[in-house]
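User: Could you go from structure to sequence for me? I need the amino acid at each position, not a summary. Structure tokens:
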């Protein structure tokens, strides 16, 4: 019991090293391409056994275009602990968070991704709740 408690404390202090499966990243990039020039938006889901490995995106109905940020806030409730954050695309190609993105990141989730047009393996970035860039490894 003691061992587990000290382990938990240690984990909460250390920075989390996020991972994403290459198949999930491909799915994100393909989805973003398929709705271009609209914005693609979804939620990031982790594996139960590997709580920092993103392996699936959860699509929200009716978020293909328009005010996706408003849609996300509507849908985003902590109903599912396997959902850790958000993913959206920037058709502009600029994959850094806007001030609206930062506000959204602070409200929900621990990890966020933005993919920029032309949606390649290198045109994306992961961010924490404050909009700071964080490393994410593709596995
Ligand atoms: Zn954005």
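Assistant: Here is the amino acid at each position, in order:
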């Amino acid at each position: 019991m003691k061992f587990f408690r000290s382990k938990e404390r240690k984990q909460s202090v250390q920075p989390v090293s996020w991972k994403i499966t290459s198949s999930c990243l491909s799915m994100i990039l393909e989805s973003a391409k398929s709705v271009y020039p609209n914005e693609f938006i979804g939620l990031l889901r982790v594996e139960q056994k590997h709580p920092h490995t993103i392996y699936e995106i959860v699509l929200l109905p009716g978020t293909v275009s328009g005010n996706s940020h408003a849609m996300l806030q509507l849908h985003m409730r902590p109903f599912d602990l396997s959902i850790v954050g958000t993913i959206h695309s920037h058709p502009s190609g600029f994959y850094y968070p806007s001030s609206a993105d930062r506000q959204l990141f602070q409200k929900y989730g621990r990890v966020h991704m933005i993919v920029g047009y032309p949606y390649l393996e290198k045109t994306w970035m992961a961010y924490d709740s404050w909009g700071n860039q964080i490393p994410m490894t593709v596995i």
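One structural detail worth keeping in mind: The beta strands are 18-20, 41-46, 53-59, 83-90, 111-116, 124-127, 133-134, 136-138.
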